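Can't paste images in this forum, so I'm doing it all in text. The chain is below; anyone willing to post the predicted structure tokens underneath?
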Amino acid sequence: MTTKTSKKNPFAPLIVDVAVPLGSYYLFKDGFGTSTFAALAWSSVVPAVRTVWGVVKERKTNGLAGLILFVNVVSLLLSFVSGDPRLMLAKDSGISSTIAIGILVSVALGKPMMTAGMKPFLVKGDAAKEAAWERLVSGRAAASAAFLRKERVFSIVWGLVLLAECVARVVGAYTVPVDTMVWLGTVIMVGAMAIAFVVSGGLAVEPMERMLTAEVEAARSETPEAAKAETPAAAKTEMPEAAVAA
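Text version of the structure:
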């Protein structure tokens, strides 16, 4: 029996919930030259649709999409605050800080928010890995405690990196020339995400992938042993029938 591997991009949930809204905001604002209000409004479309779809169709809320939508709504309200260009630059970093705080709060509540983007990357649509994941997160596997710790570490890394990125951009907004900070802010954001990918990959994703593979192998090795254990019992039930036939 073979398992089918999904051809979908494993980073799709993370891309749709985070990268698309953030990217579209900067595209509309800096690329198309729209106002901050218009850029925020248009970049809110995808998270709004994802949030409503989750509630209506899947009967559950999409944490990342909902958080992005909340941040955009708050930013829309704050966009009416005008005047100091440095304040406007600092305000843009509020998106990262709110997401970071939301991620860290989700860890404290025992529901790490970043798991939604990580799980498809590790499971890859494999039924055996999906089953192994469920055993690990439910506490039924020997490595469950270590697996859950790494799951929390993944979200903690992202939360802390995004929080640090926010601080760096706020400091830059009030210390670096405005014209420089306009493009430097984007560089800081991209750099922070790259650091988060590398650090979280080494501290959490790779160990979790090894534990997931080990759990799959353990489940496969138990199946032949169970079959062997049943063989003697089956033989005993067949012996009397053979004796009667004789």
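Residues 178-245 form the longest helix (68 residues). Residues 137 and 148 are 6 Å apart (CA to CA).
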